[in-house]
Amino acid sequence: MQLENIIVDATAPGRLGRFWEQALSTRTLIDSEEEGFETRLDLPGGGFLDLCFQPVPHRPTEPQRLHLDLLGGARQLEVAQRLRELGASDLDIGQGEVPWIVLGDVEGNPFCVMEHREVYEDTGPIAAMPLDSADPDRDAEFWSWLSGWQEAPGTAPRTLRHPSGTGPLLELYLEPRPKGPAKNRMHLDMRLEASDDVDQIAREIAVRGGRELDPDWGELPWRVFADPSGNELCLLPAG
């Protein structure tokens, strides 16, 4: 398996996807009124992440449990200003005096432009993906098993990174509140390999504290799960 997609719910997928495409200098894979918008971020070391913006009827209002931290460093102010010119806006989410800059994208989803940190070397434009967790130690073990990502230096309670040592960090932070019943507006998808046994993986997810979900989304070619803290994820068929 490999971590392949960052999925984002959007009322206007094309508009939101094009904002992020310009923000990250990615390349369009899908631009469809029915399927949404998908764009590929090529990573240092030859990997990639696809950002997939899928249509939803209403803008999500639940607190965001996964967000993106963008590389700023010495160019932090310049990067933030460029994003404002693309349509981002400054947000006050109670962060107080912090060295990073909090912005909202064109649908109001919070993200950060980060100050210089040595741990961000070779991440590409997405420095980190912070994820809320009820138990960062437990969930780091779960996500490491699921994705193959390994323990890495970082400032979060637990940090994972691709074995190549490149690309963004997956950071596990103690959640400010338990996850509610609403689906996360942003989640991660795993792509199965041809040799993977999805039923065996489903059983192992349950053993490790996750569970399979049965959302009323009609017939799907993938299976939907939650990690031990309730954060949704999908297992996509090999392809």
Automatic annotation (TrEMBL):
It comes from Candidatus Brachybacterium merdavium. InterPro entries: Glyas_Bleomycin-R_OHBP_Dase, Glyoxalase_6. CDD domains: VOC. Coiled coil: none annotated. It holds the Pfam family Glyoxalase_6. It comes from the Bacteria. SUPFAM superfamilies: Glyoxalase/Bleomycin resistance protein/Dihydroxybiphenyl dioxygenase. Residues 6-114, 131-236 form the Glyoxalase-like domain. This is VOC family protein.
